[in-house]
Amino acid sequence: MKIAILGAGLAGLTCAIECERLGVNADLYERDHTVGWIWPSVNYWPSIFFREKGDIIDYLKKEFKIDIVPIGECRNIILKSPNRTASIDGKQGYFISRGKGTESVESQLKRFLRKTVMYFNRNADYRELSKNYDWVVVATGNDVVARDLGVWEDAGLVRIIGGVAVGDFNHESSSLYLDTSYAGSGYARLTPFSSTQAILGLYAIGCAEFDLERLFSVFLQKEGLSKLDFLFKLLPIPFSTGKVKKFQVRNILLAGRAAGLTENLLGVGGPDVIASGVLAARSIINNEDYTTQVEKVRDHVDNISSFRKIIEKFDNDGYDKLIAAINTPGIKQIIYNTNIDFADIGGRVLKHIAK
Question: From 324's CA, which of 61, 62, 150, 268 has a CA 20 to 30 Å away?
Fold first, then answer.
């Protein structure tokens, strides 16, 4: 059996790892010179998004044999709207390093591979690969192939600007900022690498690309962050959101963000992307239906994404009311410090109402 994997991100690497475990050595094609995003970043994996799975690190290890080492635990979340602040303590998730550093999750995954042939600096064409391989797993991290195959359903763009700041940070805390004056219906966040460095990012929705620099300055000024020094600033290409109508077209399987398996509320996709890579390998080698295997992952992503339609209707007064409600004694504990699967249950209800 000949398997080609296009893209050495989270889905592509975990697909290759699972192929090796099942006795098939795939060929992995990556257009960059090594694994990992070209810019350093920190992902926050909030426990509230994965409540039904329990501890997400333990879940990935048990269900998919993927052992990820986070750079730290999040024990405090600060939610800020223009006139309200809520602070939530407790075990709230993990910080995950992304990029080309030795601690990044991509570098960790690469170290698991033993026999996979990796072709770097290769901008391979999935159509040509599909002629020469029995199966092609597309894990490119973008929607290009899905659009070309005619199976992509677009949900708009998120425009991103940010940077690595130097300062004095609580390495166990992450802050989320909601303010339409600079983020539209998106958000800004501060997530630490350590006690001295943090990622500050603005994820603007409904804002013009040429206005990003000004909006980022507004964010820093309004939130009292304008005096921070930056090692460098980042302006990645816009982040497309959406999903696919089909996960498989002929001998081509779509995995990870190439399959739209990143929720569009906060863009937390890592665990679901990892799961899809493993499931793609299992489906091919065990002769199982990939769409059926990835259905639970798709449903979870859809559940979280259902909240986006509500958020898009908020103005700043609405954000103030939301944070005030979250900060109400009792409600805060129910949402953040119980075993109730608030995110998935709420998402299912919203999907049912939408129908």
Answer: 268
* pLDDT at residue 15, rounded to an integer: 98
| 319 vs 322: CA distance, rounded Å | 5
- Determine the length of the chain: 355
Examine residue 24 and state whether it is found in any structural domain, yes or no.
yes
Residue 350 lies in a domain: no
- Percent of the chain as helix, strand, coil, to the nearest 5: 35, 25, 35
Taking alpha carbons only, the member of 321, 323, 278, 309 closest to residue 296 is 278
Quote the pTM value: 0.94
Question: What is the predicted pLDDT for the residue at 184?
Answer: 94
Distance CA 95, CA 97 (A): 7
First vs last C-alpha separation in the chain: 42
Q: What is the pLDDT of residues 115-171, one digit of tens each?
A: 999 999 999 999 999 999 999 999 999 999 999 999 999 998 999 999 999 999 999
Token pair of 143 as six digits? 């929607």
Whole domain around residue 275: which residue ranges?
Answer: 3-72+97-155+240-305
**Whole-number Å distance between alpha carbons of 198 and 201:** 10
Q: DSSP states of 218-251 as a string?
A: HHHHHTT-TT-EEEEEE-PPPEEEEEES-SEETT
pLDDT exceeds cutoff 60 at 279: yes
Q: What is the CATH number of the domain that holds 64?
A: 3.50.50.60
pLDDT above 70: percentage of residues in the chain: 94
Tell me which residue has tokens 């697909």: 15
- Contact (Cβ atoms closer than 8 angstroms) between residue 64 and residue 14: yes
- Closest C-alpha among 116, 136, 13 to residue 68: 13
For residue 116, being part of any structural domain is answered with yes
Tokens for 144, please give them: 């290009």
The pLDDT assigned to 239 comes to 87
What DSSP assignment string belongs to 80-117?
A: E-SS-EEEEEEEEEEEEEESSSTTSHHHHHHTT-SS-E
Residue 355 confidence (pLDDT): 54
Q: Please, which pLDDT band fits residue 222 given cuts at 50, 70 and 90? A: very high
How many Å apart are CA 126 and CA 270, to the nearest integer?
23
| β-sheet bridge partners, residue 246 | none
